[in-house]
Amino acid sequence: MPCRPPFHGFVLAATLALTACAHAPSTSAAHNADAASPVAGGNASATSWLSDVQSMANATDNAGRRQAIEQRLDALGLPWHRRTFKSGEHQGQNLFAEVGDAADSPLLLIGAHSDRVAVGKGATDNASGSATVLALAERFKREPLRHHRVVVAFWDLEEVGLLGAKAYVADGHEKPVLYVNFDVFGWGDTLWMMAPDSDGALVADTAAAAAGNGLKLSAGQQYPPTDHLPFLKAGWPAVSYSLIGGDEIAPILAAYAGEKPKAPAKVMRVIHSDADVMVEIDAQQAIRGVDAVEDALRRWDAADPGARQAK
Description:
Elements: H1 44-58, H2 62-76, E1 80-87, E2 90-100, E3 107-113, H3 123-142, E4 149-155, H4 163-170, E5 178-185, E6 190-194, H5 201-212, E7 216-220, H6 229-233, E8 238-244, H7 246-256, H8 266-270, H9 283-302, H10 305-308
Helix pairs in contact: 1-2, 1-3, 1-9, 2-3, 3-9, 5-9
Signal peptide: 1-29
Keywords: Signal
């Protein structure tokens, strides 16, 4: 079996191919599964999050994935709009929803890419990230932040070069005081946080929030390229979160360095393959991650926004 194409988006840069064909996934019955197991214990938040992932994974194309998000935003009572963009031969649609609060408050932009590649269901990459943004939108609508208004974004065409996020920045749309990105948020014990300033206030807030929710934090600049990059390259503050196993980070970074890991990380076996299906998702852990990030953003928001906005 030939190796899969290079990683892209969360997913490693286009120049990085997976280094071991022997670890390419098989087409087992488990990999072809397209339904998630029920959430144990009746956790309503986890069940809702999982339902959003499932709705996107069930869609046959990226337009259907956006439609699933739009229907969820309607159910939440959040007004949304699309913005069409073009980039070379590509045309896509970004999706935005106003969460609140006051129009003159600094903008906190929270986003994830909604598109997927042609193989698999795109459950992990990146229905998991989009469902996390929807969960945060619901929570911040119910209990708004004190010092920031929230807009959520769902980027198109990340998988062909971060085109949706690039279009937002290039078109001169409102500069957020902070952009918070989510890409691959489906399992594991560790919040992996791309943070340009590892001593920043939001990193400290995330560390406290992660510990309070039984998770670990790995924060720093080393992180796969995804939709935070267009913001950083424009000089706009941005961070990105993933939820994975802590033991996956070293093999991913080793692959970046051109090394061959002894064993590929789970994420490298799942995304961009037939294995990217619902069976790989752990909704209970994902909700721990959602709880932790919500807690971190509320801590960050509660402090003086002028002093902490770019941290």
